[in-house]
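Page 42, continued from yesterday. The earlier attempt failed because a stray header line got pasted into the input along with the sequence. Redoing it now with the clean sequence only.
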Amino acid sequence: MEEIRLGAVESRFADIIWQNEPILSSQLARLAGQQLGWKKSTAYTILRRLCDRGIFQNDSGTVTSLISKEDFFALQSEKFVDETFGGSLPAFVAAFGRRKKLSDSELEQLQQMIRQMRG
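This time it went through. Structure tokens are written below.
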């Protein structure tokens, strides 16, 4: 399986799938035409690529995800932290906090997540 990632245009196409799944491939091609200005052949080519990467599947003309949008972004975040901060989430948060002050609400949300992870 190819590495799971999306380019900018692929991401917009993937959003169409995630928002409408399960969706018939013919309907997906129509939506890609309407929303992205794509020809039917372009939609099918990109769909095949994303299926080859293991993100989606096209089973008898019905397209569904093999990985949810939330799980996809969780994987991308993990990879970023691993590659950029040696896997250290505290190092990432410290770097993030240097340039952007977190609001009290954001800090409370982080504390709630930590409590949930401990529980």
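Notes: The chain has six helices and three strands.
Reminder to self: strip header lines before submitting.
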